[in-house]
Design goal:
The protein is an alpha+beta fold and 674 residues long. The protein is built from 25 helices and 22 strands.
């Protein structure tokens, strides 16, 4: 059965060891070879059919007889058997070496039995079946070709990713630009990327700015603006400007190589359903050979001639080829993993593809997962003109080193406020800052700091501040000329995708739970906002795994969604660990699934993909096994009393059809994945 993996060869590349093009060419050569054998076999089969007695009687034709014309069938059949049939004989040797007899073994046995029996019958009397033998080999070769082509199409998604790797780079050396092959690049090299070109390797922009299309790598549809200091990924495309990039990672370290490795590992690792189908294919081969043998003996005992008995045995072997079974699961997985990789969803562990659909609790870490993980201004309340008020605050905070200060300045920038000149600036770490803006004395900080400096407070503003703090927001107080004039509240903003993700998970009847190290107040505010009923607050990083365990002990299947670095133990403990915020640092992650785009909605996509993948796997197993349940008894001759006799070539057509149906059914996934 395991012959099918050589169709898969084109999926198995780490581009450093083997150039994908070579791999691809090898695959196309393989297809060309089968095509040649199929064409030659077809041409030679025509005279064999015309000169066979059965066909002459059936169609009332008599092709020209000449001396030795009776030798046309055996001679041409020998050529077809040796040239066309050797493809299957070689495959049988490979399968038996691996102790995994399957598709090739059955076809090789069937054509060999048919050939040697016919030779014997030709020389020692009896009815040979040369025409059935040649048409059988021809049909099997064409069937194999059709199936190989559909498999090649299925592996295209990964091939597309491989094609993203550029081959040459413009290296900037001593003021000159020289073209070098990408594998010659070293960390620290500076490369020039012109508009419309692919960025050759992962690195940092040192000069220029451009919109970069990263959609094929991260699934992010909008182009991203890159300027000096921005990180870029090899394989993404500079759209409208040129960049000079300092190379940071090369070869296997690059993001794209890591994605390819992960996809390849996911496609090669076995799932439970795959193991089941492997076993089924192995037993099917044994059953086929046994049923062939038994049917041969029984038809002989019933007094039928040897030719009829051999024909039943041969048809049984051909029709039972477990090829459809062999590709049923790998194909579905191949499509699922390579397509999701292009959307920024990477499966590190293939079993997650099967398990994710059974998850009934999704546990989200709050900071950086449901929220953006950085403070931003949420409310401004002032007893004066807001714009003037903001000018004073932004001017002072522009000089402060604090993260809160940075958030306020960013907010000001967005609203077109530029910092003014500050006189007598002084920072009090952990308390606040003070200085003069346009001759007004401005103090910003916590309330106790302001009180210490003798600021006149304002009851109304203090009440507003308490309310904002109750919602889990951080509040800073601003006094101008010794009077409390306004407050600025900051909060960790909830990602806009989080609302939709929670809603969809609830629609799917999944229980959504939030976990955070923050205080109850903050946790409650976020949970309420998102419609999450249950949350755990003040949980230290090492206690997160314990919480996952507690949920599992209650009988839940848990998916944990969190930061792949800080939440590593909890991700490992969960039934499905989903690491978010990976960016280009895949190597650090510890999840079964990695979400490159830090988008909580991708969690919904993972679960939906799991449902679809398992559904397709089961459909394919049903097609592959169900077809055999009906076809094997017919081939063995159970339909004979009712006048239904399956010819070997018809058996071959049915067998190829079942494989193509399974391949097409897997391909139909693509439409649903879009």
């Amino acid at each position: 059965m395991h012959h099918e993996h050589h169709h898969y060869k084109h999926l198995e590349h780490e581009h450093k060891e083997k150039k994908p093009q070579k791999e691809h060419t090898h695959h196309l050569k393989h297809i060309q070879d089968i095509k040649r054998r199929a064409i030659v076999s077809t041409i030679l089969t025509v005279p064999v059919v015309l000169y066979s007695e059965t066909i002459q009687k059936l169609l009332h034709i008599s092709p020209p007889e000449f001396k030795g014309s009776e030798f046309i069938p055996p001679v041409l059949s020998t050529v077809v058997f040796l040239y066309g049939g050797s493809f299957f004989l070689k495959g049988m040797v490979e399968e038996l070496k691996k102790k995994k007899p399957g598709m090739m073994t059955l076809v090789a046995l069937a054509v060999s039995v048919a050939y040697f029996y016919s030779l014997y019958a030709f020389f020692f009397g009896g009815k040979e079946f040369f025409w059935e033998l040649t048409s059988l080999i021809t049909v099997m070769l064409w069937g194999h070709l059709v199936e190989m082509k559909s498999l090649l199409g299925a592996g295209k998604a990964l091939e597309e990713l491989v094609k993203l790797i550029p081959h040459t780079a413009h290296l900037v050396k001593n003021g000159e630009v020289i073209d070098v092959s990408v594998d010659k690049l070293k960390p620290g090299d500076i490369v020039l990327v012109k508009p419309g070109e692919k960025i050759p390797s992962d690195g940092v922009v040192v000069e220029g700015q451009a919109l970069v299309d990263e959609s094929l790598l991260t699934g992010e549809s909008k182009p991203v603006l890159k300027k000096p200091g921005s990180k870029v990924i090899g394989g993404s495309i500079a759209l409208d400007g040129s960049l000079k990039v300092q190379v940071e990672k090369v070869g296997k370290e690059t993001y794209l190589s890591q994605v390819l490795r992960l996809v390849k590992e996911a496609q090669e690792s076995k799932t439970k359903l795959q193991n089941l189908s492997d076993r089924a294919a192995f037993y099917l081969t044994i059953i086929a050979v046994s049923v062939s043998f038994i049917s041969f003996i029984l038809w002989k005992l019933f007094g039928y001639d040897t030719r009829f008995a051999v024909e039943r045995a041969v048809t049984t072997m051909v029709i039972a080829c477990p090829h459809a079974l062999g590709i049923a699961i790998p194909l579905v997985v191949s499509i699922a993993t390579s397509y999701s990789a292009r959307r920024g969803i990477l499966f590190r562990n293939r079993v997650a593809l099967e398990v994710a659909k059974d998850v009934n609790v999704v546990l989200f870490d709050k900071t950086g997962t449901l929220t953006e993980g950085k403070l931003s201004v949420s409310d401004i309340i002032a007893k004066m003109d807001i714009k003037e008020f903001l000018k004073s605050v932004v001017s002072l905070e522009a000089l402060s080193e604090h993260s809160i200060g940075r958030a306020v300045v960013e907010y000001g920038k967005k609203h077109g406020i530029t910092p003014q000149k500050v006189k007598d600036f002084k920072a009090f770490p952990g308390k606040g800052v003070k200085g003069k803006v346009k001759n007004h004395e401005v103090v910003i900080g916590n309330i106790s700091f302001l009180k210490k400096l003798g600021v006149v407070t304002d009851e109304e503003l203090l009440r507003e501040a308490r309310e904002l703090e109750a919602q889990g927001k951080s509040v800073i107080f601003v006094a101008i000329d010794g009077k409390l004039t306004g407050i600025v509240a900051l909060s960790d903003r909830i990602r806009k995708e989080s609302y939709e993700a929670v809603r969809q998970l609830k629609d799917m009847r999944k229980k959504v739970v939030m976990i955070t190290g923050d205080s109850e107040k903050v946790a409650e505010a976020v949970a309420k906002e998102l419609g999450i009923e249950e949350f755990y607050a003040r949980v230290l990083p090492h206690e997160k795994a314990q919480k996952v365990k507690e949920l599992q002990e209650k009988g839940y299947k848990v998916a944990m969604v969190g930061d792949g670095i800080n939440d590593a133990p909890a991700l490992t403990q969960a039934d499905v660990g989903i690491a978010i915020g990976a960016g280009t640092q895949i190597a650090l992650e510890s999840g079964d699934v990695i979400l490159v785009k830090s988008n909580p909605e991708d969690v919904v996509r993972v679960i939906k993909l799991s449902y679809l993948t398992v559904k397709k796997m089961i459909q394919n197993l049903f097609w592959a096994v169900g077809y055999n349940v009906v076809a094997i008894p017919l081939a063995a001759g159970l339909g004979v009393p009712f006048g239904v006799v399956l010819q070997p070539a018809v058996g071959a057509v049915l067998m190829s059809a079942s494989t193509v149906i399974v391949a097409l059914n897997a391909m139909l996934m693509k439409g649903k994945l879009e």
